Amino acid sequence: MRILILVRNFIPGYHQVINGEWNVAGIAHRAYDLEGKTVGTVGAGRIGKLLLQRLKPFNCNLLYHDRLKMDPEMESQTGAKFEEDLDAMLPKCDIIVINTPLTEKTKGMFDKDRISKLKKGVLIVNNARGAIMDTQAVVDGCSSGHIGGYSGDVWYPQPAPRDHPWRYMPNQAMTPHISGTTIDAQLRYAAGVKDMLERYFKGEDFPPQHYIVKEGQLASQYQ
Ligand SMILES: NC(=O)C1=CN([C@@H]2O[C@H](COP(=O)(O)OP(=O)(O)OC[C@H]3O[C@@H](n4cnc5c(N)ncnc54)[C@H](O)[C@@H]3O)[C@@H](O)[C@H]2O)C=CC1
């Protein structure tokens, strides 16, 4: 949703409607097709893989960077190419989507230097964690136009204070932290919590993917 909102320049069109305006050229000069664009995901775990599957019908050139290569079946199903070197992948991307956890390694991953090496006009979607970005570097990139659009629902800190600069930078399509909180998702959380509590009181282990810390050790994807 956020990729489409940015690539089609949706938000200014929505504001024109509210403001009683009608200026098609004012939207179109910054609107593009998603087809044919290079989209790279940083992180291809559960969400990154679902994203690649959903992007497949848009006929993009799909790239992914992760600590781990996906299984060959998923690679051939999505057509996504593995990029071992993050800094080799990023400058190829028209659109970058961040899907890694916040860890000691990903904190501040998108700093001024890294952003300066991205394609001019790059679109960035970050629903992962706000602190993966250097806040001011994103503001500067959006203000200069080096970043063509930034969208996400995660901020640092949260709740975002009224004077958080991402509220006021140009070309942003931000929301509060809403991605995981549909009514359907809340039913899944409730069922998941019930299942884990039942297992806990029976003295059973949880499914391995549900551990964040086990016996004092962070799960590998958070290290
Ligand atoms: N905005 C929201 O409402 C939500 C945000 N999230 C965020 O999205 C993140 C991803 O979620 P999932 O896909 O479920 O997690 P996941 O654990 O399935 O996938 C994370 C992937 O990131 C990779 N990774 C970790 N550190 C890396 C590094 N330094 N370099 C490259 N790759 C690295 C891991 O190998 C793994 O494949 C979560 O950690 C969470 O922060 C998740 C759900 C809702």
Automatic annotation (TrEMBL):
UniProt GO BP? monocarboxylic acid metabolic process
Record domain D-isomer specific 2-hydroxyacid dehydrogenase NAD-binding: where: 3-179
Q: What keywords are assigned to this protein?
A: NAD, Oxidoreductase
GO (cellular component) term, any one: chloroplast
Task: State a single Gene Ontology molecular function.
Answer: formate dehydrogenase (NAD+) activity
What Pfam families would the database entry show?
Answer: 2-Hacid_dh_C
Instruction: Say yes or no: keyword Cell inner membrane present.
Output: no
User: Which reaction(s) are listed as its catalytic activity?
Assistant: formate + NAD(+) = CO2 + NADH
Show the InterPro entries listed in the entry: D-isomer_DH_CS (IPR029753), D-isomer_DH_CS1 (IPR029752), D-isomer_DH_NAD-bd (IPR006140), NAD(P)-bd_dom_sf (IPR036291)
- PANTHER family the record matches: FORMATE DEHYDROGENASE 1
Q: What is this protein called?
A: D-isomer specific 2-hydroxyacid dehydrogenase NAD-binding domain-containing protein
